[in-house]
Specification:
By secondary structure, this protein is mostly helical. It has 24 helices and 5 strands.
Length: 578
């Protein structure tokens, strides 16, 4: 199987590499159709465009996306890195072809018509989907799906950014969540393949061509540390603003099909003044690194790019967060550098150096990936001479954000979808299982006025003691009879026993519904110490449809634990065979 896995990783790497290349070309073609140019030099090219074209293009793109999301894409939103993490942790590595292709097209349309996002999210999702589909189509054991997803992610990132080492680490650090040795070899191979594809068709050069910057004095280390603190604040505000934008747009109750277009209108208005926010924003980021922007513009772009990215995400237009976090970080570092140079001109390096540091620090905290982000920035810039300054700044920024929220932008997105990565894997599995799957449908219903004599006859014919009482007028559930309460009435002469089933029923018991999650139900039963819960029909809220036994719930939890343990053992076994 390891040899077969390596062959599959090669195929995934090749497909994901060409997928990343196709995504770039599709963005360029969409952009050319609507704006009239294919170049990533958006700021330069839009100068000659009429204002109405800049304003209306994101609106048209939003209308197209709204229709596509409503009728094609699952959950009515473009998928990204958070969905890949969810697939790995919750869905056992299974991803749908339809979602991958749909999100691919939506995001390309989004970025080509002026949305403020990045290429990395859609490329990562598409590459991961390809890896998952290869595993499913070839009927490989499910324990290999995660590795193949990592292969697709690594190849996509490597091809998109011409950064093979960073592509590998991004897949391991962000998506898989560990540096498990059994996954390294296939992911390395896929990352190399993706890089080769990119270099054959695009060329071997970094994304940003910048002058050589050097540290003027080691007395600048306190300034680097202070930039780390500043970058942490910016990263925290950036992460918070994404959720705030989502909640704010929700309040307007915009029809789902028009939601992307309304966001496109807001983006078009911003772009009239700040065309730097259009698309991935590489030209603006490059200009900050080359010290071409003044302090006022740098500070303004920090704010407007954050707002624009929030609108893009909240409107569900599509796009990733990597490029926007690089953009905001570069502006933050550049502004900080200008201020530092005005205070200590003799010992301060060029503010272009601080732009690199800020770019790395902010994106590391936003993505929750300090190692891979450092490597990506090194490979994007081709400058390794400033490694100490980068590590100081990133280390402080990461430490602060970890202490305050301990969540990346992707984990925040998952938390908004009720996916908590801090709980153990078995509980997370139970969260997405419903009561209807294990509830007991075998029980005996009796009317509330049933006498003890009649009840004994019923129980003797059924062979069990799962008796529930209902109101004969509307068939609504009243309560359940415990065998301990029933036992004194069942033996001896009960001919003249005045008790009825309704009088013995346990009333006001907590209830659950067929679609209640097993995780919530386990918590409820543990707190109340109940051995059985009535399951009430979700539609009527009155009729009993089943009984949930604590023993069955514990059995399901234990099976989940064993399943996760078997997966880990399978990984270790494959590691040994590799």
């Amino acid at each position: 199987m390891p040899l077969r896995l390596m062959l599959c990783s090669l195929i995934v790497g090749l497909l994901a590499g060409y997928g990343a290349l196709a995504f770039r070309l599709l963005i360029a073609e969409v952009q050319n159709f609507f704006y009239g140019f294919r170049s990533e030099l958006v700021v330069t090219e839009t100068v000659s465009l009429p204002w109405w074209q800049i304003l209306i293009t994101p609106v048209i793109g939003g209308l197209i996306i709204g229709v596509f999301l409503k009728f094609v894409v699952h959950r009515r939103r473009a998928h990204g890195v958070a969905d890949v993490i969810e697939a790995v942790l919750i869905n056992r590595g299974k991803m749908k072809l339809r979602d991958g292709i749909g999100s691919f097209l939506v995001s390309a349309t989004s970025l080509g018509t002026g949305a403020s996002g990045g290429r990395e999210g859609p490329v990562v999702h598409f590459g991961a989907m390809l890896g998952s589909q290869i595993g499913q189509r070839l009927r490989l054991p499910s324990k290999y799906y995660t590795t193949l997803i990592g292969c697709g992610v690594a190849s996509g990132v490597a091809a998109s950014f011409n950064a093979p080492i960073a592509g590998m680490f991004f897949a391991l650090e962000v998506v898989i969540g560990s540096f498990a040795t059994q996954a390294v070899a296939p992911i390395v191979l896929a990352s190399v393949i993706g890089t080769v594809v990119s270099r054959i068709h695009i060329g071997d050069f970094p994304a940003f061509i910048i002058p050589n910057y050097n540290i003027v004095s080691w007395w600048e280390l306190p300034a680097f540390a202070l930039l780390g603190i500043t970058s942490a604040v910016v990263a925290l505000l950036f992460i918070w603003s994404m959720g705030f934008a989502e909640r704010t747009i929700d309040r307007f109750k915009i029809p789902e099909i028009l939601r992307p277009a309304s966001g496109g209108l807001a983006l078009g208005l911003i772009a009239l003044v700040f065309p730097q926010i259009i698309g991935v924003g590489y030209e603006a980021t490059d200009s900050a690194l080359k010290e071409e922007y003044d302090l006022t513009l740098l500070l303004s772009l920090i704010v407007v790019k954050t707002i624009a990215t929030g609108i893009t995400a909240g409107s569900r237009i599509g796009g990733g967060f990597f490029s926007p976090s690089l953009f905001v970080g570069a502006m933050t570092g550049g502004a900080f550098g200008i201020i530092a140079a005005s205070v200590f001109p003799e010992i301060s390096a060029s503010h272009g150096l601080y732009a690199i540091l800020g770019m790395t620090a902010v994106s590391a905290s936003v993505l929750g990936a300090p190692i891979s982000t450092i490597l990506i920035v090194f490979e994007l810039t081709g400058d390794y001479k400033i490694s100490i300054a980068v590590m100081v700044t990133v280390g402080i920024t990461t430490l602060i954000t970890k202490q305050l929220i301990n969540r990346s932008i992707f984990q925040v997105q998952l938390a908004m979808r009720n996916v908590d990565l801090s709980e153990n894997t078995a509980l997370r599995y139970l969260k997405f299982r419903q009561v209807r799957g294990i509830m007991d449908r075998e029980f005996t219903e009796v009317p509330s006025q049933t006498s003890m004599l009649e009840l004994r006859e019923i129980i003797s014919n059924t062979g069990h003691d799962k008796v529930v009482v209902f109101n004969p007028d509307d068939h609504s559930f009243i309560g359940r009879i415990e065998f301990a309460d029933l036992k004194p009435h069942m033996f001896g002469d009960i001919t003249h026993d005045p008790a009825t089933a309704g009088e013995l029923a346990i009333r006001n018991s907590p209830v659950v519904y067929p679609d209640s999650s097993l995780k919530q139900t386990l918590s409820l039963m543990t707190k109340t110490h109940l051995e059985c819960l009535p399951v009430i029909d979700s539609a009527t809220k009155t009729r009993l449809v089943g009984l949930l036994h604590y023993s069955d719930l514990l059995r399901e939890y234990n099976e989940a634990l064993l399943h996760m343990q078997n997966i880990e053992q399978g990984k270790k076994a494959s590691e040994g065979s590799l």
